[in-house]
Amino acid sequence: MRRLNRKRTLSLVKELDAFPKVPDSYVETSASGGTVSLIAFTTMALLTIMEFSVYQDTWMKYEYEVDKDFSSKLRINIDITVAMKCQYVGADVLDLAETMVASADGLSYEPAVFDLSPQQREWQRMLQLIQSRLQEEHSLQDVIFKSAFKSASTALPPREDDPSLTPDACRIHGHLYVNKVAGNFHITVGKAIPHPRGHAHLAALVNHDSYNFSHRIDHLSFGELVPGIINPLDGTEKIAVDHNQMFQYFITVVPTKLHTYKISADTHQFSVTERERIINHAAGSHGVSGIFMKYDLSSLMVTVTEEHMPFWQFFVRLCGIIGGIFSTTGMLHGIGKFIVEIICCRFRLGSYRPVHSVPFEDGHTDNHLPLLENNTH
């Protein structure tokens, strides 16, 4: 009884076979079929390699939401060199929400040489070239995000020439923590002093002829410091043509959460608009000479996540490639063979000549082919 059930089950499974086997004696091979098979296998191999490279690649996914974090502090990372001596300049942040001077204790003033060495100048040219390419091809930003913490350092390399050169500039570098509201970071003449109605700078003791706000921005970023990320103002250099000159940077900061397979950081992207003008009160151009960076925070937060193709999707695409090419080449081979047979049949019909009929006396004709006669000698 069990054997009978097994035979029935086996026969039922055989009937469900979607891949019936054809005996080898019924299979006919041809040169055209072999050629098409080679082309199909080669195409399958190439597309499989290309699909595997796509499977290994990753892409960045951008998601937008309202930024609900208003209580935390915003970190500003600064590295700016001004072509004036350190005792003549002062840097501070004016918080527009509280109308008070933010503490600038996190900044360091270091005497430096404004002109770059050959190696540093080459670094600056390369950085400016990357900045120009980023403005034209925004997709390069994804490459920078994925290469963060892996690429070479974006900091200015140390000076390799004579370090005994007389310093003629001041390097202001460090970081500040400010409230997440609009503010104004500025560098102007004189040290900042607190004031009940705002703030003031001790500029009376500085000679007007020593004003020179030519500057170089080696680094400016907001949020967590992420090595390898290139910001819009990195490598910027401005040369003042007048003593009384104002440089303004209007910055819009966008909070950004970066999640890649290498890092996870809370940083900030920003866009900037530049403007510069000469202060001339007689001509109606009022203001204060210096470098002013007015920043404002966006209400939206961007989450940038590095994603990868799942294996099941890669497997489905691979099966589609193999099955599609196999079926398509089989159909094309069958259609081509059918067309060739039609053309060959027409040539054969054109070369066929019918035998003339032999008339009889009663008017009938003999349509039969004459028998072959055996000529014997």
Automatic annotation (TrEMBL):
Residue span, Endoplasmic reticulum vesicle transporter C-terminal domain: 168-331
Bilayer topology term: Multi-pass membrane protein
Alphabetized InterPro entries for the sequence: Erv, Erv_C, Erv_N
KW Transferase (keyword) present: no
Keyword Zinc: no
Keywords: Endoplasmic reticulum, ER-Golgi transport, Golgi apparatus, Membrane, Transmembrane, Transmembrane helix, Transport
Domain of life of the source: Eukaryota
Subcellular location: Endoplasmic reticulum membrane; Endoplasmic reticulum-Golgi intermediate compartment membrane; Golgi apparatus membrane
PANTHER family listed in its UniProt record: ENDOPLASMIC RETICULUM-GOLGI INTERMEDIATE COMPARTMENT PROTEIN (PTHR10984), ENDOPLASMIC RETICULUM-GOLGI INTERMEDIATE COMPARTMENT PROTEIN 2 (PTHR10984:SF30)
Stated role: Plays a role in transport between endoplasmic reticulum and Golgi.
Record-stated family: Belongs to the ERGIC family.
Name assigned to this protein: Endoplasmic reticulum-Golgi intermediate compartment protein
Gene it is expressed from: Ergic2
